[in-house]
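Internal ticket - ligand job 546, zinc ion:
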Amino acid sequence: MKKSLVLAFILASLTACDQGKKEALKEEPSKKTESSKIAPPSEADIPAFLKENPNDLSGLRHTHSHKGYQQFDFNTVVDIDKLKKTKGKLYSSKEDVMKVLMGGVKNPTGDKELWKEGLMFEGVEPMPWLESAANWFPRTEKVQPNEMRITFMGTSPVIRPGQMNTSIYVELGNGDNFIFDIGEGSIANYAAAGLALNELTKVFITHLHVDHFGSLPYLYEFGGWAGRWHEPLTVYGPSGASEEYGTRWMVDGMLKMLNWHTDAFDVFPSGNAIRVVEFDFKDDGGVIYEKDGAKVIHWRRSHAKDGASGYRLDWKTPDGKSLCFVWTGDGRPSMLDLKYAKGCDVYVTEIQTEVIGLSSIVQGVPPFLGRYTVDTHHTPGYAAGWLANQIKPRMFLTTHMPFDPYINEETVAQVREHWKGPYHFGAPDGIVVNVTPDQIWVREGILPDYPNNRAPQFDMRDGKDFVVPHPRHARKDIQQQEIRDLEVDPDNYYPKDYKPELLTEWPTKGDLVMPAEQIPESMKKGMGEAARDRAKAREAHGLDTN
Ligand SMILES: [Zn+2]
Ligand SMILES: [Zn+2]
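stdout (structure tokens):
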């Protein structure tokens, strides 16, 4: 954070913008939609270069394939007769070579469908552009034009250092990104994943339990401080049984809670605009977001109180196919889940493994409390597996789960009672899922404990003005002169001959506006990267890049 602070000061001294209005922009609740069905994707216009290689983004590294020896075809690769004639060397027989190369892997299945080992399913394999099949490292791989990348930024209802509260980040190959739930502490993992806070402008909240929105105040304030100056933070969320149980009420309350903070941060260039899109929670299948080939619908979940919702994101890839992600949020297994999640590529449900007795021994919690909580609010492990087997996703993940050695085995056992297909935990924090129409792969992301925060991101392509808004307050507006006068004279603590020029007042009178062309290259490189990537991604989709 220190680095960003310093950077913000540098930025501010260079540039400045409009005195935006400190108000929550509000929208009408979404209109009911006639169709509760997801329309099949239509054939999209595919740019020529994508037809040739749908996975290519020019200028990006494609290091190696991980297909390896699984796909090794001895007959086309090795000519044993030719080898035998070479320089009198004695080569091993085809049978011996195959025994070694294929040993431990080949499992003759014949016509019979056997139980698959681990994640070894058709199409469950790493894409060639992944730097490692084992781990994801922040900012080492670009999301490809036909790819969806899903990262679990918070994975547990019980917050603890290894697991923040629930949050799932979804990036699309068209440069767009979505946050689904933003539980307490999860924002730290966004920073660790190499994201600037002002890249995050859309949050979809499933319900108003605090373990699903606890990081919203931080994202709102510090994202506004760290460069989200020109567009609002948009919060999508359900209505409740009455007004005071809806998302807008929560956001209004949050703004009240943050009153001091917001006013204090107004000595900086800061973005205070927040937009609430509160939808009618009863409108099962209603569309609440539709842009650039991406569409989000919602439906009711049974979670002890009206308002809890599940989300489905459908997105058309440039090759005319579609990818789908479902996050159920919390709730009991429901027939609506089957209806709206059916056939989705990546189905993510919450799960509560049935270990009531065991947990009560380990944690000392009376069993009835666990039993009652699960039976009124949550999806038991067996139910999760049953749902998956109905929905038949290409990859099934469970999250909102404690990642504990004494529970994990039981979780798998309960899910496997019904679902024999591709399955992975969406836990602990940092699990990454890469999805294309043909392949899907799940890895553990390596999130550093002490990441350097990514610089605020701006569109610094040539022709774009860089605008820093003027702060709404001067310090003197919100602070007594007396307490400022009592500040120790810096001459008392700075070493002799060290005399920095202190920046005690905002250095400019109005907004600072400068053409991006005049910004130092090093700054453009660090602060303009996301916009450049996004433009490239949008271009690949034939979308407007301005
Ligand atoms: Zn929860
Ligand atoms: Zn909940």
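Auto-summary: Residues 192 and 450 are 8 Å apart (CA to CA). DSSP finds 18 helices and 19 strands in the chain.
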